[in-house]
Every structure is written in C-alpha cells, then in structure tokens.
Amino acid sequence: MKTNKVNWMVAVVLGAMVALSPALRAEDKPAKPERTGPGQGPGAGPRREAMKERAAKVAEELGLSDEQKIKVREVMKEQAEKTRELRDLEPEARREKAKELRGETQAKMKEILTAEQYAKWEKIREQNRPGGPGNEGKPGRPGKGKGPKGEKPE
Q: How many folded domains does the chain comprise?
C-alpha cells in the first residue's frame, strides 16, 4: 500500500513537471514586439532606428528649425513611399523614375532650406555616396565607373 502512494506521488510530481516545463521555458524568451503595417517586417526595427539617428544627425548639422524638421520629414516620407512604388518597374524605367524623383526631392528641399543649409545638405549627400569623399574604401554601385570590389575597371 505504501508503495502505491509513493508511485502515485512520483507520477503526480513528474506530471506537474512536464506540464509546467513549457510555461517555465516561455518565461526565458523575451517577448517579440508586434509589428504591423508597411515597413514592419523582420529587420525593420534596427534599420528604422538607424535612419532616425542619421536624420537627427543631419538635422543637427544643418541647424533645422522645428518647422523645417517637420517639412523635411514629410518630404523624405513621401520620397520613400514613391521609391517603394518603383520596385515593380523594369530597371531602365526605374532608373529614369528615380532620377525624376530625386529632382523633385531636391526642388522641395530647396524650398524648405535656406541657401546655406541647402549647400550643407548637398555636401552631406555627396559624402554619403559610394565612392564619394569619406567613402573611398566602400565599393561603388554598378555602372558608376567602379567594379564589384570598388576598383576602377581597366
């Protein structure tokens, strides 16, 4: 009789351990934030944060007012949306539309920024281009006079 009670208690304890082990393991993992909406897929978080940091740095370098920051943010958001729409186009059409879009963005930025701020903005953009000043070690884009590893073609 005593053996039956011990076996029964062992079975209850083992059953409880098995039943509770998934719940205990679930506490070890951090909860994943829910992502909804466009641009919220895997990897969007760190990329978005890096973009925000870069935008804040540029805004500080240019000395933007609060009103200018809002307008620039709207222009950049609009540009990003229009750029996403270009994904389905053929490469040549995409290049042409992207060139037009850059021209529109430049015109809008010229309206928002002072002449001095615009000149600084152009300089920052030039420095951030692959193969531009400060980016000598980074490979250039295809078709921009550099090979796949950043060296000049012969």
A: 1
Three-class DSSP labels, 82-131: HHHHHHHCCHHHHHHHHHHHHHHHHHHHHHHCCHHHHHHHHHHHHHHCCC
Task: Report the alpha-carbon distance of residue 80 to residue 82 in Å, rounded.
Answer: 6
The per-residue pLDDT for range 73-132, each reduced to its tens digit, is 888 889 888 888 888 889 899 999 999 998 998 899 899 889 898 898 888 888 877 765
Is 107 a member of any domain?
yes
Locate 7 and state its tokens.
Answer: 């076996």
Q: Is residue 98 part of a domain?
A: yes
Specify burial of residue 93 (Cβ count, 10 A radius: 0-12, 13-18, 19+).
Answer: exposed
- C-alpha to C-alpha distances, 85 to 37, 82, 89, nearest whole angstrom: 16, 5, 8
Nearest CA-CA partner of 42 in 51, 50, 32, 52: 32
38 located within any domain: no
